[in-house]
Amino acid sequence: MANYAQQSDIEDIFGPTNVAAWSLFETSTPTGPADPTRVATALAYADAQINAFFADGPYALPLTCATTQPVVTRWAATIAGIWLYGSRTTASYIDYEGNRYIALQTAVQQEMDLYKSGVNRLDAPLRFPHPTGPTAA
Fold it and tell me: 37-62, pLDDT tens digit by residue?
């Protein structure tokens, strides 16, 4: 299965310099390109978080959407970027950036909840087909 997001999606939200620095456990200008292994780990973590959230929900997993895929991609990229930020060796969620990213993560979780509860709908295949019954005449 392909990831819901790619490195470029994380970079679109957090910037390539930040993604590179965070993937290298750095807090300032990175000394090289992003570590592809850590980025892949972050993307796998994001996919697992989304799938775990939607387990026993209305949609078949993995989520496959035609028109709402950008929504799922944004969720995954946000979760992966925040994981990279928070897993740095010098990370502190007490700082301003950490608090801002926690708020961003909370917003993603709240939005996912709207889709799981049925308030909003993904165009993904449903986990269970809707039962059909006779119509009243």
Answer: 999 999 999 999 999 999 989 999 99
- Give the residue ranges of DSSP H helices in 15-128: 16-23, 36-54, 69-86, 96-117
**Residue 89, both tokens:** 């060796």
- Helices H / strands E in the chain, number of each: 5, 0
pTM metric for this prediction: 0.86
Look at the chain and count its residues.
Answer: 137
Q: Specify whether the CB–CB gap between 98 and 92 falls below 8 A.
A: yes
Cα angle 131, 126, 46; round to 5:
155
| 128 closest CA partner among 52, 64, 59, 68 | 59
Q: Could you identify the residue written with the tokens 């750095």?
A: 26
DSSP 8-state secondary structure symbol assigned to residue 29: S
Instruction: Examine the pLDDT at 135 and tell me if it is beyond 70.
Output: no
Q: pLDDT at residue 93 above 70? A: no
> Exposure string (b/e) for 46-61, b if CB count within 10 Å is 16 or more?
bbebbeebbeebebeb
On the CB side of 70, how many CA atoms lie within 13 Å of its CA? 3
The arithmetic mean of pLDDT across residues 61-77, rounded, is: 92
